[in-house]
Amino acid sequence: MLSEHHDIRDEFPEFQRLLDAKRAADAEFAAVVTRHDQLDDEIRQLEECQSPIGDAELEKLKLERIALKDRIYQALRADADEG
Question: Which of 8, 30, 34, 57 could form a disulfide with 23 if both were Cys (CB 3.0 to 4.6 A apart)?
C-alpha cells in the first residue's frame, strides 16, 4: 500500500511562491523544510517497505514531521500576514 506523500510543496500549494522565496532568503527555514521533506521520505519508505520498525518509533517520526510542518506553516503565515 502506498502511503500519502506529505512534501511541503504539496501540503501548502497556496504558499508556493512565498515558500520558495523564504527558503532562498532564510537558511534556518530552508533547513527545517529540508528536514521535514527528508523525514517524510523516510516515513514513506518505512511504510511502503514494511520495515521492521516499531509502532512507537514510527509514531515518533510522524510526530516530529507534524511539529516541523506546524513550524513551517506558522512561519509562512507570519510572512503572508506581513506582506
Answer: 30
